[in-house]
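Q: Given only this backbone (402 positions), what sequence would you predict?
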């Protein structure tokens, strides 16, 4: 009897599954099929932009309008389509590499994917962003490589591609370690390192995300000789007035030149909190050195954040060959540079983007001014940390030069 009682239930479930299977193909289709052609857009206005154009228009009155589509060519055989929702009345077409006139067909499309009659307009893009960037592209030698900088007024997503004639035979290559330079800010700026101190022919071009590319800039460069200083020659040179260590013997100055880049506690320099004046630490490099650049690795706080507490935000670097034993920051010292750490994202306090954290993990890197004298002793003077006070936390400090 129990078996007989369940038969109708099983049959109902089987019928439901069959019904669901039959209907599955129609789930994502419009409830109503409308094969009638929708009305066309009207009152189209064109605003030409760098490598692009913005089209503004009036939408047709069709209740089932789904989107508006623009169809155009950026060049012979290079067809593109851009669509915009029915909730807005504007779209931007882009990817142009020239300033020629281009015809654009605009279509209104209903929920059954039926296209309206086309409305044809002509756009004449302004100079493309990758060309503007190339016109301002400048490359200069620096320690261990070269500086690349160019303006990017339209904030386009661009890449600068570097190449070099490594064999001096006219063949340009991109060897391992020489990476493309990406940017989408008002200025694209990058230092490429790892280059030998010999004259070679370098080449650079700018490319956009549609693979349009500029002409090529050829430059003969001789990068300046550079080496990473041997930290085994360094010692802490504590002077009166230098910062008091929070945990002597554990979070000493030596932690920033022990070549251990793990930035967790207690592998860090950490000075006493609650002080009311800028704090300093002093290092003896063992001999006079000429500086090219430095990398400062901040301490990572709980929660994997860097732009907090005692990590330096504004600081100075001073040099001396015969410091006053009184510890006074007097004429025996020369201020080499003032540094301000800026988050790449420009985000407010308490917010760290992926770009911000990558910058901190890789180390805050800065070039010294060209022509700095050679010094044996350096002083790092913290003007302000990320909590707007003066104590110092730091994981590692690395110097380069000769």
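A: Predicted residues:
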């Amino acid at each position: 009897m129990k078996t007989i009682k369940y038969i109708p239930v099983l049959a109902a479930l089987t019928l439901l599954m069959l019904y669901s299977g039959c209907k599955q193909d129609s789930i994502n289709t419009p409830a109503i099929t409308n094969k009638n052609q929708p009305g066309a857009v009207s009152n189209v206005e064109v605003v030409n932009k760098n490598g692009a154009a913005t089209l503004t228009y009036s939408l047709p009155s069709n209740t089932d309008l789904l989107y508006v589509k623009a169809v155009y060519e950026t060049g012979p055989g290079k067809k593109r389509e851009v669509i915009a929702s029915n909730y807005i009345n504007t779209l931007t077409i882009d990817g142009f590499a020239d300033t020629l006139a281009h015809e654009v067909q605009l279509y209104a499309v209903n929920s059954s994917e039926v296209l309206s009659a086309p409305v044809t307009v002509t756009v004449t893009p302004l100079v493309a962003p990758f060309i503007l960037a190339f016109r301002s592209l400048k490359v200069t030698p620096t320690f261990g490589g070269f500086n690349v900088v160019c303006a990017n007024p339209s904030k386009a997503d661009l890449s600068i591609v570097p190449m070099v004639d490594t064999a001096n035979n006219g063949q340009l290559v991109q060897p391992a370690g020489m990476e493309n330079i990406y940017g989408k800010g008002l200025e694209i700026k990058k230092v490429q390192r790892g280059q030998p101190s010999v004259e070679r022919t370098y080449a650079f071009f700018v490319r956009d995300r549609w693979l349009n590319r500029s002409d090529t800039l050829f430059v003969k460069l001789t990068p300046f000789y550079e080496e990473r200083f041997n930290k085994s020659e360094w010692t802490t040179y504590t002077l009166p007035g230098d910062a008091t260590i929070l945990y002597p013997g554990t979070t000493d100055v030596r932690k920033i030149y022990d070549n251990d880049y793990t930035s967790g506690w207690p592998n860090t320099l950490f000075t006493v909190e609650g002080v009311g004046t800028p704090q300093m630490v002093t290092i003896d490099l063992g001999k006079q050195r000429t500086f090219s650049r430095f990398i400062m690795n901040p301490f990572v706080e709980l929660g994997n954040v860097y732009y907090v507490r005692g990590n330096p935000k504004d600081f100075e670097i001073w040099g001396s060959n015969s410091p006053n034993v009184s510890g006074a920051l007097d004429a025996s010292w020369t201020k080499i540079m003032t540094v301000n750490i800026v988050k790449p994202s420009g985000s407010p306090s308490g917010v760290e983007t992926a770009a911000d954290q990558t910058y901190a993990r890789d180390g805050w890197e800065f070039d010294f001014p060209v022509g700095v004298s050679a010094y044996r002793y350096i002083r790092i003077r913290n003007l302000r940390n990320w909590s707007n006070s003066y104590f110092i936390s730091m994981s590692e400090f690395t110097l380069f030069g000769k």
